[in-house]
Batch of 4 targets.
Target 1
Amino acid sequence: MLKKRLKLSVLLLISCCLLQPLMAQYVMQLDSAQAFPGNQVFVGIQIHNASPVTSFQCDIPLPGAVTTEVGSVVVNANRAVDHLIVASIIQDSILRILCFSLNNTPFNGNTGEIARFKLTLPTETMEAPLPLLNALIANTSGQNVLTSTIAGVVRAMGPLNVIISSNSGTVCSGQSVTMTAVVNGGGWNPTYEWTSEPSGLNGGQASLTFAPQSSINCIVHVTDGFQNGSDNFFIETVAPPVANAGENITQCYGFGVSLTGSMQHAQYSSWSGGNGFFEDVGALQTIYHPSEADLAEGSVGLVLTVTGANTCPEHSDTLLLTLKVPVTLDAGVSAVVPYQTVYTNYDAMAAHYSMLQWESRGDGTFSDTGNLHCSYTPGENDLEAGSTWLLLTAYGNSNCPSVTDSLLLIVLSEDDNIMLLPTLEAGVSDTVTLDILVNNRTLISAMETSITLPAGMTWLEETASLTERAQDHITDIQFNGNELQLIAYSQNGNPFLGTEGSVFHIAFQTGSQTGTFPLPLMQSALYDTNGMDVLTDYFDGIIQVLLTNTFEMPESQYELSVRLQPMPVSEESHLQIELLANAELQLTVFDITGRQLLEMNLGNLTKGSHSIPLIHKINTADSHIRIMLLRFSLSDGTTTYKTIKYF
C-alpha cells in the first residue's frame, strides 16, 4: 500500500506544470562546500518560498571522483513535519532526491535549509560546480511553483599560498605605491591583515595603496578559516631630486650673469627662462646673457630643473634676476674759461646713476661736487698750467659699475689770446660747418690762420664768412691743394666785437673715408690795434667721420663700444663687444698715426656681450690738446670691422 502511495506522489509531482504569478518567488539553492582533499563535507539544500509548499525533487550530477552515500541524505527537522525523503543514485552518478508529505503537509517556514547530504572529496585538489537539474517545488495544490535554481560549488582545497605583487619595488619618498596580496589555493573568502616593519601600515583589503616616506617591509597575513598564509615585500624609498637655483640676483645690464646652481639626489640639470641665452644650459655653473627684452621687463625668472635616475619626478627652482640699467654719462665738451671767470657746465648729461662726483686734476674748487651742472672756479695752478682736466664719475644703481668721463678745461690768464677749432662729427660725404673760435683779453683788429683739410675732404668755395663779431672787417681767402688760408682785418683798425666766440664760418665736405682726423691750425696770428701779434696759444680741431653701412662687415654682426679711463691715468680699460653670432676674432689697436699699440687674438667668442681688458697709458704728447686717438680693428680672417674713437 505504501509503494502505491509513493508512486502516486511521484507521478503527481512530475505532472505539475502550472506556473505561479510572476510576483511570487520560489527558489531552490545548493550550498557550496569545501574541505581538504579526502575529507567529507555536508551540502545543504535551501528552499525560499513565497507561500506554503509541500514537496520538492531535484537531480544533482556529482563531479568526477566525488562520491556520496544515499543514507547521508536527511531532511531538516526544523522545517519538516511529517515529510519523508528518498535518495538514489541514477545513471552517470546523478544523485536524485525526493521529499514529500503523504498528508500534503506544508514545510515549516519560508526560507532556509530544508535538507542536506554528505559528499566525500577526492584526494587531489579540485573545484567543480554542483548543478540542480529537473528541480520541482510543489504547493498544496500540487502545482510546480519553482521560479529559479542556484547551483553550488564543491571544492577540495589545496595549501594556502600568498604572494605580494607591487607596481614598484623602488619608489620616490612620498610617492604612491600599490600592493596586492595574490592568493592561490586555500578556501573561499580569505581575510587580510596588513602590517609593516617599522610599524604604521594597516589595512584589511587584498590591495593597499599608500605613500611611504622611508624604506619599509610590508607584511600581509591571510586566513581562509582552515589555514593561514603570509608574505612580505620590501619597498625601498629614494630621496627625490632637489634643485637650488641660488639666491636672487640683481645685476647691471650689459654683463653676463654668473649662475651657481646646485642639486641633490639628481643626475641631470637644465636651465630655462628669460629671453636671453645660456652659454651651457646643462651646466649648474654657467653664464646667462640677458637680452633687451629682459631689461624691458625689469626682472625675469631663471629656472633650474633637475632630474634623478629613478621614478622620482623632476624638481625645479627659480631665481629672480633683476636687471638695472647701466650708467650713461657725458661730462660735456672741452671748454675755455676766461680769466677770473667761474666755469659752469651746462653740457654734462648722466642717467641711471645713484650718485655723482666731480673732481679736478688741478687745484680749483667746485660749487657742488655732487651736482651734474655745477660750477668750477679755477685755482692758481690751473691758471699757471693753462688747463686742467675735470672728471665726472657716475656711480651705478645696485651693482652697476661706475663710469667716469672727462673734459679739458682751458683756463685763460689775464693776457691770454687764443685761437681754436672745435671737435666735429659728420657722416661720409657730409657737409660740415667749421667755426674758428677766438678768445681774447686784448682788443683784436685782425687775424690770420691756415687750416689743412684731411685728404679726401674739400672746401666748399664761397662759404667762408665772418660772424657778427666783425665790424668793417674784410677777408682774404686762398685755397691751395688742401690748405685753406684765411685773413680778416679792418682797414680802419677797428677791433672785433666781444672777447670770445666764433669769428669765421667755413664749410667743407667730407670724403669716403671713415675715422677721426685732425684739423691742424698753421701760421696763425692775432693782431691788436697796434698791429702786434698777441696770440698766446692755439688748439687744433678734430673731425670724426661716423661709421656708415659701407663697411666690409655688416653692422648687424658686431656692435663695438669702448670704455677707457680718463687720461693720464694708467689703468685697465675695456673694449665692449656685442656679438650677434659666434666668431673667432683678432683685435688690433693703433694710434692716429698708424702706430700699432696692441694686438690680441680673442679666440672663439660666443654670441653675446664680451668685455676685453686693455692696458694702455694715454700719453699727453699724443695730441696738442691732449686727446688720445685710437683706431680699433676687429677681423675674423675674412672681413674686417673698423672704428676710431677719441678720448
Note: DSSP finds three helices and 58 strands in the chain.
Target 2
Amino acid sequence: MERHHYDDPDETIWEEIANTATVLWAVCVVGLELLAKWGAKKLEANVWGKRLAARRAEKKNESGT
C-alpha cells in the first residue's frame, strides 16, 4: 500500500483506526448537541405558540360574552 506524506511511518493501522474513530465520535457528539439545541428551540416555539393560541382564545371568549 502506498504511503502518503501525511502518514506517520511509526503509526500502526490500529492507531490510525483509533484516531479516525475519535474524530468520528467528536463529529457525532457535536452533531447531537446541535440537534438537541435545534429541537429545544422548536419545542420552545411550540410551547409559546400554544400559550399564544390559548391567550387569544381566552380573549375571544371574554369579548364574546
Note: Residues 13-64 form the longest helix (52 residues).
Target 3
Amino acid sequence: MTNLAMLAEELRQFAGAVRVAGDDVAGAARQAGAAPVDRIGPAVLDSAVLELQQETTGGLDRLTAAARELDDALVRLAERSGTLAEGG
C-alpha cells in the first residue's frame, strides 16, 4: 500500500472517529433528556471536545508526516529527472 493510500485510509478512520464522537455527544444529550445543545452538560461537551482535539491532532500529525514524505519523494524524483535529462 502506498503512503497516499495509507493516508487515505487513516483519514477515513479519522472521519469515522469524528462521527462516533458526534454520536456519543448526541447520545449523551438524549440520555440527559436535552434536545438543544445548550442543555448538554459541560463535562460531556468538554470530554467530547477533548476527544475530537486528540483525534484531530493525531490526524494532522499523520497528514503532515505524509506531506513531508511526499515532498521528499518529489525532490528525489526531480533530482533523478534532472540527472536523466542531463544524460547521467
Note: The mean pLDDT is 72.
Target 4
Amino acid sequence: MLDMEGFIFWLAVFVLCLWCCQWYTHLVAIIYGKWRLHHKRSSTECPPVPLPGMSIIKPLTGVDPNLYANLEPFFNLQYPAQYELLFCDSDPAIIVVKSLLLKNPNVRTELFMGAKKIGMNPKINNMITVYGAASHDLILISDSGLRMKQDTLSDMVQSLTASCHVGLVRQIPFVCNRNGFAGILEKVGLIDEAYSVFLGTQHANMYLNADLYGINCVTVMSCLFRKKKSAVGVSPSVLSLLGRIHETTPSQTSRREWWAKLRQSIVPLTLLEPHSESLLCGLLASWAVHVVTSVSPLVTFGAHLLAWLILDYVIFIVMQCPFSKCEFLLAWLVRESTSLFLFLRAYSSSELTWRNKRYLLDWGGIGREVPSTRKPQISEV
C-alpha cells in the first residue's frame, strides 16, 4: 500500500505526463498545420471534374456594422456551377439583404420569413424551414458574421467530392485584420467559435490535431455536407481554406461563457478543460517538476510560459499573417490572464442569456427558458 509520499510522487508523474501531452499537441498542430494549410493541391489530387450545385444557408441575427461587408463576398464567389443563397428571417437585416439583391440580380437568392421553434437556439429555429427548401444536395451553413474568399467554396466542394468516404467539410475560422487594440484581442483569442476554443492559437491547435487523427468535430459556424446521405459512411472531416469572422469583443466574451456552460452540461469531462490553459497547466507542472526533481517552481513556471508563448505565436503565424510581436505579446497576456476567470464564471451558474432571453441548462444541453419577471409597461392614452 502506497504511503502519502509515494502517492504524491506518482500523482506528480501523472501530471507531468499530461504536461508532455500538451507540448505534443502544440508541435503536431504546427507541423501538420504548415503542411495542410499551405499545401497546394496538384492536378492529380484535384482532377478537373464538374462541381455540383450548392445551397448556401445564411442565418441572419440582426444588423451589425460589418453585415454588408460580410455578406457581399457570397454574391461574388467564383464557383463554376449554380449556387443559391438562402437567408433566414431577421427583420433588421432584411434591408441589407435587399440592397445586395438589387446590386447582384444574377445570383439566385431567397429570403425566408418565420421560424419553427424546435429548441432554444434561434439560429437553428430559423434554419429548419430553409433547410427543407434547399434545391441542391450540397448544403453549406455559413453564419452571417463570416466572410469568404472567392475560391473558397470551390475548394470546399472539391474536398467533399474527392472521395465517397468524405461526408463533411468544416472550416477553421480566423478574425479579419482590424485596427486598434480590440481587433488585436479578437484575433489572438478573445473570440470564441461554437466550441469555446481560441481561434488563433488554442482553437487552431485542437482542430488541427482533430483533423490529423480523424476525430469528427463540427463547427456549426461553417460546414459543408450532403443533404441526402449519399456517402458510404462518414470520414473525418477535411480542412479547407480558413473562414473569417468579424464581431465585437464584448459579445464574444459572453459567447465564450455561453459555450463553456453548454459544453459542461453535455460533456461533464469538459470541467477539466481549464487544464489546457497555460496558467493552470504551468502551475500544476511546476509543482510536479518540483516534487520529482526539486527544481524551483518559479524557474519551471517561467520557462513554461515562455515556451507556450513561442509555440502559440508559431501556430498563429501558420494560421494567418500576424501583426507585430509586441502587439501579439500584449494581447496574449490579456487573453491568458482572463481565461481562467471566464471559465470560473461560466461554471458558477447554469443560467445563461441568449438574444435577450434567459435559459436554465439541464444535463444533456437541454435549455429551459426562464419567464421574464419584468412587469409590462402601461402607457396612458
Note: Residues 37 and 257 are 29 Å apart (CA to CA).
